[in-house]
Amino acid sequence: MEQECMTGKLYLCATPIGNLGDISARCLEIFNTVDLIAAEDTRRTVQLLNHFGISKPLTSYHEHNKREKGEYLIKLLKQGKNIAQVSDAGTPAISDPGEDLVRLCIENDITVTSVPGPVAGINALILSGLSTRRYAFEGFLSVNKRHRKEHLNSVKNDTHTLIFYEAPHKLKYTLADMLEVFGGDRKIALVRELTKLHEEVIRCTLEEAQELYAEKSPRGEYVIVIDGASENNAEPENNFWDELTVTEHVNKYISEGMTSKEAVKQAAKDRGLAKRDVYNEYHKGAME
Ligand code: SAM
Q1: Residue 119 Cα, ligand 1 centroid: separation in angstroms?
Q2: 117 and 14 in contact (C-beta within 8 Å)?
Q3: Which is nearest to 224 in space by CA: 241, 206, 211, 244?
Q4: Which in 6, 101, 142, 148 has the greatest CB count within 10 A?
Q5: For a pocket test of ligand 1, which of 95, 122, 195 has the largest count of ligand atoms closer than 8 A to its C-beta?
Q6: Residue 201 forms beta bridges with which residues?
């Protein structure tokens, strides 16, 4: 109990993604009261603080120093210091540093709390006109071509609306890869410069999006929101047992070391059948 009182708190503070008016009153209050602000880019955060007339010690916490700096911040929190963590824009830990620091705090019994605010992906989703009932946040695609394709293929049949972050200079390549994997008819929303002067939402198909950007250069920050696969269009998954009879399916598991009981159970699970039906089918097949 005594230790709980002495330990500081980590505040994950969301900051504006463009319009400074989106800072919350609580976020400013926390900035004013914490001992230290850990910022992804201290120069950017100084500008934000200056705008609101706040002067506070800052330290950098980013992708390249997160290991050492994380330990240092934990030490300060254990000494009772309260720390706010901010990224360049939006919500920390969402495609931004913060995730590791949260984990470290949990491991060290340090309280973490959030000061909610803007998230580009969620704002793009609600403006997209696509279904918001079920969605999946996919973040950035890898710069590695093979990994990008693997990522896209892994969500090709996903029926949730998909949200991707993308840098403008990679947008054309990403649209080309998406077109190849998802097909030209998928609905897409390209949401640009949210909350800023040139905010824009382009709603079209993937094919139209690719044509559009063949002619014009992408500018600013983008979120790509893509319709999920329709239940009817989703390609069925290929399972290794599709080509096998029930008996062959069970025998495969037995040849891999399972007992016949385990093999029947697993084959039934794979095929969505009752164990008894697989058992009967297997014994019938085995006797033929
Ligand atoms: N943590 C941030 C959040 O909560 O949304 C995201 C940070 S991530 C490094 C930056 C990406 O977010 C950009 O490449 C872009 O895809 C998206 N983004 C950030 N601000 C945006 C804005 N104002 N308009 C559109 N997309 C934005």
Answers
A1: 7
A2: yes
A3: 206
A4: 101
A5: 95
A6: 191
Lowest mean pLDDT among 114-123, 151-160, 247-256: 247-256
Question: 163-214: per-residue pLDDT in tens?
Answer: 999 999 999 999 999 999 999 999 999 999 999 999 999 999 999 999 999 8
DSSP symbols for 254-288:
HHTT--HHHHHHHHHHHHT--HHHHHHHHHHHHH-
CB 8, CB 81: distance < 8 Å: yes
Per DSSP, the three-state class of 19 is: coil
State in Å: Cα 221 to ligand 1 middle. 7
The DSSP letter of residue 35 is S
Let me know how long the chain is.
288
**pLDDT at site 241:** 86
Expressed in angstroms and rounded, the spacing between residue 242 Cα and the centre of ligand 1 is: 42
Q: What is the mean pLDDT of the chain?
A: 93
User: Candidates 221, 222, 224: which one to mutate for ligand 1, based on the most atoms within 8 Å of Cβ?
Assistant: 221
Give CA–CA dist 60/44, Å, rounded. Answer: 11
Q: Is the CB of 40 under 6 A from ligand 1?
A: no
Q: Which of 141, 145, 121 is nearest to 132 (CA)?
A: 121
State the CB neighbour count (10 A cutoff) for residue 68. 9
Two structure tokens written together for 58: 């800052």
Type of residue numbered 53:
G
Probe residue for ligand 1, chosen from 41, 223, 225, 226 as the CB with the greatest number of ligand atoms within 8 Å: 223
| Cβ atoms of 12 and 112 closer than 8 Å | yes
Segment 45-88, tens digit of pLDDT:
999 999 999 999 999 999 999 999 999 999 999 999 999 999 99
Q: What is the atom index within ligand 1 of the atom nearest the CA of 118? A: 4
- Helix (H) or strand (E) run with residue 121 in it: helix 120-128
